[in-house]
Write a structure and sequence with these properties.
By secondary structure, the protein is α+β, with helices and mostly antiparallel strands. Helix content is 30%, strand content 29%. The model is unreliable at 1-50, 133-142 and 975-979 (pLDDT under 50).
């Protein structure tokens, strides 16, 4: 059975009053995350069930965008101009933010924008305004004059309306994600001004913007669509903005058709102000709100009828309709045994964690007579069992749980896949139960997490199929239940995917439900969807692709319009032997420019779940309907010539979007498609094929290697996840300063580094990497940060963690070849020689950009070293490519001709567009570096790398005896960024290619530019 909610919903700013107050209290006490989470039980039972709608402030509010210039500096907006179009249940929001660079040099910024849940932008533009900082902005910033909504907020019109106030503004276009990232980074290296908007994890989009001209003001425009919330019969839009006292204007355009009236509330200091009726019975309402004191608004469309949206674009005509499932409700008893998996990562934040813990308590309390025993697992990048046993569901045990939760620290990234596999098959339970083959091992699994994965496996079908294998093997999980409490950053698609594929329900805290109702929602028996029909339409989709629904659930239906629509959608459901039909009326229609993108977003969400099978179609739909995400990004370049240089051309996406039917694609999937999507061998082959299609890098793997890959078994391609064990670190064991600064969106790099080193020395490498993983939790798509943490993991012997991090970097930046070297060497460390060989071959499969210097030579040296070592290495795993490896070693040795070299020193670093020079002072005092790259002793230095990540290498085949000083000079860093620390990975190899070979590895952090830093002294 599967119970699902619609996955295309907006964030619920409104909550029942008791929940809003609870969240506020925790928000004011940032790191007391788990304190006072379990209230007096009898008091809870006696609480009033009366529901009112209040404003829910958040420490991670939506629409509060800044431009980060480095680790600790950021630009806040000086003014915000916001336009809002509301048609029925759908709204379009366009935000103009004005930012000034106060520095005397051009900079690159990272524009991070947290969006409401389930929302993706459709428009992004950036440019310099005609205003400079020298004017001091003494007079109010002049906003544009609002126009009518349909012309003002379409992508085709937004640029023209701002043309007179910008200097050469640029609009982003939709491009495949890999091509967009390559074009962006290569363009920045040439000091021209692109911008790139990418998906950076659930609820967050990150845009690199360059150049932020010195002492100039810039305008960033972002547009997105979202669904309004429902409260009884009303539709509600909550729109938070910054608390800062800056100029703010919100222009409202509302289609009031079929509604009684429009009510507006200002929000001042997170308090709802008195409501004002701004319209009654007008079809189109226009209102402007201006000022500096408000930090949000609420728009309520009163007593809104069930309207359907109608619209069209180049891909055809579409409809969209919401329906609150009106079917008879039937409850069943809870399973007597429950396991709770509780997210304790950095992003759990005080608000989320408090609500999750409160929900756990209510589930145990409200179902006390049915859930007789339970266990609890907490997780970030590691998982910890509260007790390795099921305990009785009693007041005493719940009180003991409270004490345990009070001591937890919310830190680290989120490895949901590993946690769910542990929770689905607890070793202490499956091994104990195996002694009695007739014992019932089943339990219900309750997941309390936002589902935003930043660590470990991220692909949805890989996760669900792995969990299903564990469940089937041990016969454990009866049903999986997930919850969405309206907090920022929830990955709706993943949470609904898990319950659909594994079986269970995904429940949402809406404006007219509360935690007491959620605590028993899992008992509701679902209705299975048998069919959906609407005369005059086809390709009908339901958001989230549910198999089943439950009474009271809000679903969004959309589809293609072929002819005159019937006045009702007919849905047929079953529950056991009961068959029931429901009719959803389509009598009141609103023509809206927002309709096609409702269809497009739902379609793209479904296609991206099977992107490995339908990549071209997924990209075409994403590009046409302007839905950036895992398939495509919004990219802007300087000129038409730049787009041509990177072979970014207009394609026939509208044709594909108009003719490919999503429902047919899923209907034609083979029965075992989920297993295909979770095949690690096919995933690597797909990665190689994607590289081969990137014509700008001319990637081509030799046929012999492709044949080798085809012949290798699947287990070669799976770096198995070892159980990650670390200490449970309580709050009293860490410095108070660290706890105080452990805030989402506000963590400090240096403080994390300090605490990580302290934990490494006192506890273990696993505890140290958990601390550093908070950097990735906050910046999951920042490749420099990912490599930084990967270097640390490798230096601490955590090769599997380092491998997974470099794999993430390779997927984000497939055109940066050093990732393939790192992956190859780490696969070798993990005793997977076949996978190591494949990645070494991938590093040789292209003539990489000149900015990577003599990468090919250094990579060949590493490859040859691996081949030599693997030929004599004893391992339990068969080396399938051993014969090929012997032939390859002979050819590489001839090409390199460095066997027996007395000394080799190689460096690489983690930050792009950075110039680090390697200097070697030989025993004679002669210095070898880029300006003097050959010495009297025949030592030589490879090509100077001034723009990339390295590498640079010194080689001396017959090194004179004596001391060699190894120095690095931090010649220049990325001048477009402020404050990002550069780490250098240094490898020294003596007697390369012989039985006496010795290799040392170390990582150093560079602080001061223009200074040489002594990093090692070696005696030969």
């Amino acid at each position: 059975m599967t119970i699902l909610i619609a996955s295309c919903t907006s964030n619920n700013f409104g909550m029942p009053t008791e929940m809003s107050v609870a969240a506020d209290a925790v928000a004011n006490n940032a790191r007391s995350a788990a304190e006072e989470t379990l209230a007096d039980e009898q008091d809870q039972k006696n609480k009033s069930s009366k529901k009112t709608l209040s404003w829910k402030p958040s420490s991670q509010a939506e629409n509060n965008a800044v431009i980060k210039l480095g680790r600790d500096e950021e630009l806040k907006p000086e003014a915000l101009d916001i336009s809002v179009q509301i048609d029925g249940f759908r709204a379009r929001v366009v935000i103009d933010g004005f930012y000034t660079n106060p520095h005397n040099r051009n900079l690159e910024g990272s524009f991070k924008f947290r969006l409401p849940n389930g929302v993706v932008p459709y428009f992004f533009a950036f440019g310099e305004t005609a205003t400079s900082i020298e004017s001091n902005l003494k007079t109010p910033l002049i906003f544009d004059t609002p126009n009518q909504p349909l012309s003002r907020l379409s992508p085709q019109s937004l640029m023209g309306q701002r043309a007179s106030r910008w200097l050469e503004p640029k609009e982003a276009i939709m491009v495949s994600r890999e091509k967009a990232a390559f074009a962006y980074n290569d363009t920045v290296a040439r000091q021209v001004d692109p911008a790139l908007l990418e998906w950076a994890g659930a609820g967050v989009f990150s845009a690199k913007v360059f150049p932020l001209q010195a002492r100039k003001t810039h305008r960033v425009v972002l547009g997105y669509d979202l669904n309004l919330n429902r409260f009884d019969k009303d539709l509600i839009l909550d729109l938070p903005v910054t608390n800062d006292s800056i100029q703010k204007r919100i222009n409202l355009f509302i289609n009031q058709k079929a509604a009684k009236e429009i009510v507006l509330n200002r929000i001042i200091k997170d308090e709802l102000q008195a409501p004002v009726i701004i319209s009654k019975n007008n079809e189109l309402v226009q209102q402007t709100i201006e000022g500096t004191d408000f930090n949000g608004i609420r728009v309520t469309v009163k007593q809104h009828a069930n309207v359907a949206l109608m619209g069209q674009d180049e891909a055809g005509s579409f409809f969209a309709k919401q329906w609150k499932v009106d079917l008879p409700a039937t409850d069943s008893a809870s399973h007597p045994r429950a396991v709770f998996a509780l997210d304790t990562s950095l992003s759990a934040s005080p608000e989320k964690f408090h609500l999750w813990v409160k929900l756990i308590e209510k589930i145990l309390l409200e179902n006390e007579s049915e859930i007789t025993e339970f266990s609890l697992l907490t997780f970030n990048i590691h998982s910890h069992w509260w007790k390795k046993a099921f305990v009785k569901n009693t007041t005493a045990q719940r009180q003991e749980l409270k004490t345990y939760l009070n001591q937890l620290i919310l830190e680290g990234a989120t490895d949901l896949a590993s946690a769910l596999n542990s929770a689905a098959a607890p070793k202490w339970w499956t091994e104990e139960s195996s002694d009695n083959q007739n014992s019932n091992k089943q339990f219900d699994l309750f997941l309390l997490s936002d589902g935003a994965i930043t660590w470990g496996e991220k692909e949805s079908f890989f996760i669900s199929e792995s969990i299903k294998k564990n469940i089937n093997k041990f016969q454990t999980v009866n049903q999986l239940y997930t919850y969405r409490l309206g907090q920022s950053g929830e990955d709706i698609k993943l949470l609904t995917h898990l319950t659909r594929e594994i079986g269970g329900g995904s429940y949402q805290l809406t404006n007219d439900t509360d935690l007491d109702q959620l605590a028993t929602a899992h008992k509701m028996v679902p209705w299975k969807i048998e069919s959906v029909e609407l005369k005059g339409a086809n390709d009908i989709l339901i958001s989230g692709r549910p198999n089943s629904v439950y009474p009271g659930q809000l679903i969004t239906l959309t589809g293609r319009v072929l002819s005159e629509l019937d006045n009702k959608i007919v849905l047929t459901f079953s529950k056991g032997e009961i068959i029931k039909s429901a009719q959803v009326p389509i009598t009141i229609k609103i023509d809206s420019s927002l309709t096609s993108r409702v269809f497009g977003q739902i379609a793209v969400n479904q296609l991206e779940s099977i992107a490995a099978l339908e990549q071209k179609v997924a990209s075409a739909f994403a590009n046409h309907f302007r839905v950036p995400g895992k398939s495509s990004s919004l990219l802007m370049l300087e000129s038409k010539e730049d787009y041509e240089r990177y072979q970014i051309k207009p394609s026939e996406d509208a044709f594909v979007a108009g003719h490919k039917q999503i429902s047919k694609i899923f209907a034609e999937l083979s029965e075992g498609f989920a297993e295909t999507l979770s095949d690690p061998k096919k995933r690597l082959i797909a990665q190689i094929e994607k590289l081969e299609k990137m014509t700008v890098i001319n990637f081509s793997l030799p046929d012999s290697v492709s044949i080798l890959i085809d012949d290798m078994p699947m287990n070669i391609f799976n770096i198995s996840a070892n159980e990650k064990i670390s200490e449970k670190i309580d709050k009293q064991w860490v410095p108070e300063k660290y706890l105080q600064n452990l805030q989402p969106e506000a963590i400090k790099y240096d403080e994390l580094q300090t605490e990580a080193l302290r934990r490494y020395k006192k506890y273990s490498a696993q505890d140290a990497i958990k601390v550093l993983s908070s950097l990735i939790e906050q910046m999951p798509s920042d490749v420099a940060i990912i490599r930084d943490v990967a270097f640390a993991a490798e230096s601490w012997g955590l090769y599997q963690q380092a491998f997974n991090l470099h794999l993430t970097a390779a997927n984000l930046r497939p055109y940066e070849p050093q990732s393939y070297t790192y992956l190859a060497k780490l696969a070798h460390q993990l005793n997977n020689n076949d996978l190591a060989l494949i990645y070494f071959e991938m590093g040789l499969a292209s003539k990489w950009s000149n900015r990577f210097g003599d990468y090919e030579l250094i990579h060949k040296l590493d490859y040859a070293n691996f081949l030599r070592l693997s030929s004599t290495q004893e391992t339990n795993q068969k080396f399938y490519a051993q014969d090929y490896a012997k032939l390859k070693l002979n050819s590489l040795s001839r090409e390199i001709n460095l066997t027996g070299s007395d000394l080799i020193v190689a460096i690489s670093w983690n930050t792009d567009r950075t110039d680090i020079d390697l200097h070697i002072i030989e025993p004679s005092g002669e210095e070898c570096y880029y300006k003097h790259n050959k010495t009297e002793s025949n030592g030589f230095m490879t090509k100077d790398v001034t723009e990339g990540f390295g590498p640079e290498m010194y080689v001396n085949k017959s090194a004179p005896k004596g001391q060699y000083d190894l120095l690095v000079k931090y010649f220049s860093s990325d001048q477009n960024k402020l404050g990002l620390k550069t780490k250098v990975l240094i490898r020294t190899i003596r007697n390369w290619g012989t039985n006496e070979e010795i290799e040392d590895l170390q990582t150093v952090t560079l602080e001061n530019q223009q200074q040489k830093q002594l990093i090692a002294m070696i005696k030969i």
